[in-house]
Design brief:
single chain; Chemotaxis protein chec; 8-stranded antiparallel β-sheet; globular
């Protein structure tokens, strides 16, 4: 994972949270993700493909998911439901879309977001890749961004 690949995602999440839900994020120390690391209670997952392939995971604590959805929907959300799941999927889509626009040379396409809920869930990546995990803190609670993006090997004609 190259720094020039991760920086657009960091910019994407901080910009998205500031502009869409008026919630500044404080970045923690990026690190390589350990094997079966448990995520927060609600995670949006998007696949990316093109001249690079990978996955983006936006993982939110329940409190962050509820507050973000409440802000986006302009109504108080008190439990994880379909509206909250849709809001988390949309936030994930905005983060991935923002990064995609800054990585034009990779000609990326992004999948529709999938949202996983439940305490202690794990998103598994292929065994030959190690995602970067960037923890964030917000006024509502913790947020994690995990990104794995690797260039596709191009076959050279013989």
């Amino acid at each position: 994972m190259r720094a020039e690949y991760i920086n657009p995602f960091i910019l994407g999440i901080t910009t998205t949270f500031e502009t869409m839900v008026d919630c500044p994020l404080t970045r923690g120390v990026p690190r390589l993700r350990g094997g079966d690391e448990v995520l927060h209670d609600v995670s949006g997952v998007i696949g990316m493909s093109g001249q690079a392939v990978g996955t983006v995971v936006l993982s939110l604590s329940t409190s962050v998911a509820l507050k973000a959805a409440s802000t986006m929907l302009m109504q108080e959300m008190t439990e994880i439901n379909a509206d909250v799941i849709d809001a988390v999927g949309e936030l994930t889509n905005m983060v991935a879309g923002s990064a995609k626009s800054k990585l034009e040379e990779l000609q990326l396409s992004i999948s529709l977001p999938t949202v996983i809920t439940g305490e202690g869930h794990v998103v598994r990546f292929p065994s030959d890749v190690t995602p970067i995990c960037i923890p964030f803190q917000s006024q509502w609670g913790p947020v994690k961004l995990e990104v794995c993006l690797a260039p596709v090997a191009v076959a050279v004609p013989v």
